[in-house]
Design goal:
Layout lengths: L23 E5 L4 E4 L1 H6 L4 E4 L4 H19 L5 H9 L5 H9 L55 H14 L5 E2 L11 E2 L12 E5 L3 H7 L36 H5 L4 E8 L2 E9 L17 E3 L1 H7 L5 E3 L12 H5 L14 E2 L2 H11 L8 E12 L4 E13 L9 H31 L4 H26 L5 H26 L1 H6 L1 E5 L2 E5 L1 H16 L26
Helix pairs in contact: 2-4, 2-5, 11-12, 11-13, 11-15, 12-13, 13-15
Length: 565
């Protein structure tokens, strides 16, 4: 490495020990913020609310590093009984301190022989050192879209650099990268796209408790979990030999390996003042296909296209997040596991995250009380332009009682999902109303339909989250569903009245429009009649205590109410 790895004044080699130096941003329970070392994070986890990274994706990446440390230091937990002992023990993370001390040498960010999450001596053929924009995700490729740092990153503190190195392995963009010496994949001085960092493939999901201690434990999956494969040889990056240039094709050994997967080769360039440059190349490739028994922090979807291409069934890919779809609207993917049933059954189209399967086991076996509240956090990066830039970052949550995850008592989960379908039905009805009013006025219908739907989802979000949080407080979820339908009907009817009032004289007078059965004189009065009929059919009357005929059946997601033909 260049001479800047050493203190030029002769005072020795620089060091930044992540086990002892503060670098992880946290939010305390009293609302104050701080930066803590690894040892301090585990010692004070009971008094911390959460990690607060520079970006939500950084928080997710740092949490996975903490989980890898906890799994390795505690050697498990091996089974649910061992986990229950940890849950009841206020000093459950006491072994972590000795563990970090034993591996302290691999947690030095600036070490010359084995720097943390880096490749010693990494260099390009021309000894180029690149801008830190390459690892700071809020300035991808020099085009800032998060404004924390503009227009470039000239220098980072060692604490900041440590966080961004972790983030780069998890979420670095794809694209053509400058080749490094010793990488056999280099062609003409370049390595062609090999995909994003491992976590960038995922629709990240984790269970968040009231404190960081609870969050770490809730996501600490036991080794005997049936749907999760963890090899005896599973180990995090710091218990493996330091990575050389290039990458190795191999299968992951378990969660400790995946949570610290070295998807990149990184080397920081620094002086006593801080980090001022970086060398970044591709590392160990890992295809996301069929990793559902290894990676628990994402939902999975069945890919018919991949099945046809590979001539095998089933093939699962991570279920990525959609930025425009709030977490509460996708609760079905979190609480319902569409597992195959019976011999010869068709494989499930979707699998819920292994982390939530684990929490489901905890409540089903009585380790957690049914009313215990968790937040299902969803975090993900949405890439654009052949995955060479990050377009958006998703960060959302939905609070729920763990009874919704109960594997035997599915009533609560079914009603929670059905309640979202009630909201979808009302939103579709409002979209149709707005479109019909526009048609009656002789204007385009797509814009008004979209605007009305967005407005409706916005008005229903807070009431649904509040309703869901109260759901576990009742012995029977069905009457709660009725109350929700009445609330949805009231909210939708009020918004419908607003749309009708805003439609104007042209919609009130109406015009002839073409329908499937022929022509019809469409005006705001007829559009309102269709709208009210759709609400009554799907939700019942707001003053009625009778459930609609299909209330006990699980409604299809995205039920669309159409005007009669």
């Amino acid at each position: 490495m260049p001479e800047d790895d050493h203190n030029s004044s002769g005072e020795g080699v620089l060091s930044f020990d992540l086990t002892a130096r503060p670098w992880i941003p946290v939010l305390r329970r009293d609302g104050s913020q701080a930066e803590l070392s690894l040892c301090e994070v585990f010692e004070r986890a009971h008094d911390l609310r959460r990690i607060v990274g520079d970006l939500p994706t950084q928080e997710f990446a740092l949490l996975r590093v903490l989980l890898a440390i906890a799994h390795d230091a505690l050697d498990g937990p091996q089974d649910i009984d061992a986990w229950a002992d940890l849950w009841e023990d206020d000093g459950c993370f006491a072994p972590v301190g000795a563990y970090l001390q034993a591996h302290r040498g691999r947690f030095d960010l600036l070490d010359a022989k084995a720097p943390f999450f880096q490749t010693p001596g990494l260099r390009t053929g021309q000894d180029e050192v690149f801008s830190l924009n390459r690892i700071v995700a809020d300035v991808p490729n020099g085009e800032p879209f998060f404004t924390a740092r503009m227009p470039a990153v000239d220098q980072l503190t060692f604490a900041e650099a440590a966080r961004w190195v972790v983030h780069a392995h998890a979420y670095d963009t794809s694209g053509i990268k400058t080749g490094v010496e010793g990488d056999t994949r280099v062609k003409g001085g370049k390595v062609y796209p090999l995909g994003v960092g491992w976590a960038g493939n995922l629709g990240g999901v984790f269970a968040e408790g009231g404190t960081l201690r609870e969050t770490l434990l809730l996501n600490l999956v036991a080794s005997d979990t049936s749907n999760l494969q963890i090899d005896d040889s599973d180990a995090p990056a710091w218990r493996r030999p330091p990575c050389g240039p290039g990458g190795a094709e191999r299968a992951p050994t378990g969660v400790r390996d995946l949570y610290t997967w070295q998807t990149r080769r990184v080397r920081l360039h620094f002086d006593r003042a801080g980090v001022r440059g970086v060398v970044l190349g591709y590392g160990d490739p890992l295809a996301p296909r069929d990793r559902q028994n290894r990676e628990p922090m994402t939902a999975w979807r069945r890919s018919r296209a991949q099945e046809k291409k590979l001539k095998k069934v089933p093939v699962y890919l991570p279920r990525e997040h959609t930025p425009e779809r709030s977490a509460w609207r996708g609760i079905g993917a979190l609480v319902v596991n569409e597992a195959s049933v019976g011999q010869g059954a068709e494989p499930a189209d979707y699998l819920r995250p292994g982390i939530l399967e684990w929490v489901a086991r905890l409540v089903t076996e009585g380790v957690l009380e049914p009313g215990f509240l968790v937040r299902a956090r969803i975090v993900g990066a949405c890439y654009g332009t052949q995955q060479s830039v990050i377009d958006e970052i998703v960060d959302d949550h939905v609070a729920m009682a763990v009874v919704l995850l109960h594997q035997q008592d599915r009533r609560y989960a079914e009603q929670a999902v059905a309640a979202v379908c009630d909201a979808d039905l009302a939103v579709n009805a409002l979209g149709d109303l707005a479109a019909n009013l526009a048609r009656a006025a002789g204007t385009g219908s797509d814009g008004p339909r979209s605007s009305a739907r967005d407005m409706a989802y916005g008005l229903l979000e807070a009431p649904y989250r509040a309703w869901l949080a109260r759901l576990a407080g009742t012995d029977d979820p069905y009457p709660q569903r009725l109350l929700w339908q009445q609330q949805v009907h009231t909210i939708a009817a009020r918004l419908g009245d607003r749309l009708m009032a805003a439609a104007g004289d042209a919609a009130w007078q109406g015009r002839t429009v073409q329908l499937a059965r022929g022509t019809e004189w469409l005006n705001s009065a007829l559009a309102g009649k269709w709208f009210n009929a759709a609400l009554r059919t799907g939700l019942g009357r707001p003053d009625s205590f009778d459930l609609p005929p299909d209330a006990d059946a699980r409604p299809a997601p995205e039920t669309t109410v159409k005007a009669p033909a």
